[in-house]
Amino acid sequence: MTQAVPRTIAIHADAPPKPAWGEPCNGCGVCCLAEPCPIGILVSARRFGACRALAWDEPAQRYVCGVLTGQRHLLPRWLRPIAPWLQRRAARWIAAGSGCDCDVELDDA
Per its UniProt record, what InterPro entries does this chain match (predicted)? Predict the structure, then answer.
């Protein structure tokens, strides 16, 4: 059995608490701050660490996927020409609407 290695992720102070597994997404951002999803890997050019496409939505007081919301400035320049194509596919690629599938356990220490 492997044991989880503790690490720190920076979460906005006003972010909502992480929902339980399977509960609707509330924009807590934990999943995307811990590691990028498949489209986040493409956008962030990394497999570990926070996704570069994650954006804080101040009025809504939650995190949003910049690809899903069409925030082209969050994309690398080489992906900006296909931003509309990416945006149309983002919901499926990030499993939007399928409930929380993040198994990261938070320690409020």
Answer: 4Fe4S_Fe-S-bd
